Amino acid sequence: QVQLVESGGGSVQAGGSLRLSCAASNSINLGGWYRQAPGKQRELVASITYRGSTNYADSVKGRFTISRDNAKNTVLLQMNSLKPEDTAVYYCNAFSWAGGSFWGQGTQVTVSS
User: Fold this and answer.
1) Where do the H-state alpha helices sit in 1-113?
2) Distance between CA atoms of residues 83 and 99, nearest Å
3) Residues 58-86: pLDDT tens digits?
């Protein structure tokens, strides 16, 4: 079992930045961030393997950076050049070493034009 606690959401104007943090209760394998806008399906934003290999949605490439600190069991998402279309609830996701998938409670990100 892995508990995930997210922080760092908020409201910014277009062009601004936010940094999301996800703290896991214990070591995780794959970590990632998803988002869900009103009326839309949840989508992958970025993911990172234990060794640091990353994957990004095309819509955020060049603007968002995912990273992790394995010693602290944290996964970070640095979001720059935010756009109104980035507005969504952002969820941390993690896979345990046993293969289970776990979700955080979600944090709201609102970008105004």
Assistant:
1) none
2) 34
3) 999 999 999 999 999 999 999 999 999 99
